[in-house]
Design goal:
Elements (H helix, E strand, L loop, with lengths): L11 E4 L2 E4 L16 H12 L9 H9 L33 E5 L19 E5 H7 L14 E2 L5 E4 L8 E4 L2 H17 L12 H6 L10 H13 L4 H14 L4 H4 L2 H7 L18 E4 L11 E7 L21 E5 L4 E4 L7 E10 L6 E2 L6 E6 L2
Antiparallel strand pairs: 1-2, 3-4, 5-6, 6-7, 8-11, 9-10, 9-12, 12-13, 12-14
Length: 381
């Protein structure tokens, strides 16, 4: 069955032979997300949909009868065009496509070590052809060449090398009409499990290709770019809205990216591209000096701070009427600043500093050199 692309906020689904309204989005459900964007919005949505009612893995067979029923009262399978009857066509064993349907983790369970509550969360679990499910394995979703894929299923889904920029491994590509559905599954997973998803990156190699080890943005750049395209190109359908309402009736939480598709762009859109490279030669090879300004009748106009790599004695006393220019060893700091930084120093070397107040400028400059000149020695780290 092909779906119609309609934006919707409520719908009716067939349940036990009669029509039952699952209702609209509960009043005020998304109030705490109002006016937010970026990670702040993701966090607010996480708090709204967290702690859903967890069902058993066996119960999924029953759940599918309301969450994934097509207009012919058959299983709505997004991986094939097979006609499956609920209950009687549940998988026990299979050899070929269209033998039976089973429970597919569209977000592979090996990526999160098959633990609760992710392993029974209906927002990413769907009924699919058993054989096609085995072909999909735990490969990432992606896009492959239509010319020579490794496998093509009865409805046109494919297994093959990824040709979406950024990844070249084996992927599973669903047909275009369901790409947005699966994209919104993944936006849901990154939000519902924002508190734990950062720890899933290294559980399985195909998961590592998709997950970036953070709670936000959660996905590698190539994958995030792709599912955002899928979300845009395949908008929310009546099928998804019906399913969202049906799952809500079971789990007591919703997929916010079906209710509010605009949230995808608000959370992940317009992210600045990450820098191409890291900084280099990272070290604490700077020394910051601080002081309290001099007081008295004649206040200084500024200070000359002089550095030596050998000793205090090696620091020459400045001469009135001769300005000492700024450089690696010298800094002129205006009165009122009370700090300066010497950078580019060698680690584990002790540097020596003296500070001379001065008035005037040019040939009229006068340095304070009598009395006790302030000095300090510091080791660069």
């Amino acid at each position: 069955m092909r779906k119609s692309f309609l934006w919707a906020t409520f719908s009716f689904s067939l349940l036990c032979g009669s029509f039952l309204s699952y209702g609209q989005i509960p009043s005020g459900y998304y109030n705490n997300a109002a006016g937010l964007n970026g990670q702040a919005l993701q966090t607010a949505l996480h708090d709204i949909i967290d702690d859903h009612t967890v069902k058993t893995y066996t119960y999924l067979w029953t759940a599918f009868q309301t969450t994934d029923v097509n207009g012919s009262n058959e299983v709505w399978d997004m991986y094939s065009d097979c006609e499956f009857t609920f209950v009687s066509d549940q998988c026990v064993t299979y050899s070929n496509e269209c033998d039976c349907y089973n429970r597919e983790h569209s977000f592979p369970k090996s990526w999160f070590n098959d633990v609760s509550p992710m392993n029974t969360d209906l927002f990413h679990l769907v009924p699919t052809d058993g054989k096609v499910n085995s072909w999909r394995s735990n490969y990432p979703f992606g896009e492959t060449s239509s010319v020579n894929p490794d496998i093509t299923t009865g409805n046109g889904s494919k297994v093959g090398p990824c040709n979406y920029p950024g990844y070249t491994g084996t992927i599973f590509e669903p047909v275009d009409e369901y790409k947005g559905d699966f994209a919104r599954n993944y936006f849901y997973m990154a939000t519902r499990y924002a508190d734990v998803i950062a720890g899933w990156e290294t559980n399985q190699s195909s998961g590592d290709a998709v997950l970036d080890g953070t709670s936000y943005p959660a996905y590698e750049e190539w994958f995030l770019d792709m599912i955002m395209e899928w979300h845009t190109n395949d908008p929310v359908s009546t099928k998804e809205t019906d399913r969202n309402n049906a799952v809500y009736a079971i789990q007591n939480n919703r997929n916010p990216y079906i209710d509010h598709p605009e949230y995808v762009a608000l959370v992940w859109g317009d992210m600045a591209p990450e820098p191409t490279n890291h900084a280099s030669n990272f070290s604490a090879n700077t020394i910051t000096l601080n002081w309290i300004d001099a007081t008295g009748t004649n206040l200084p106009d500024g200070y000359l701070v002089v550095m030596s790599e050998t000793s205090f004695a090696a620091i020459a006393t400045p001469t009135d009427g001769t300005v000492v220019a700024d450089g690696f060893y010298n800094q002129n700091i205006a009165f009122g600043i009370e700090t300066c930084i010497f950078a580019g120093l060698s680690p584990s070397i002790t540097y020596y500093f003296k500070i001379f107040g001065f008035t005037g400028s040019g040939t009229s400059i006068a340095y304070k050199t009598d009395g006790t000149v302030q000095q300090v020695a510091i080791e660069a780290k």
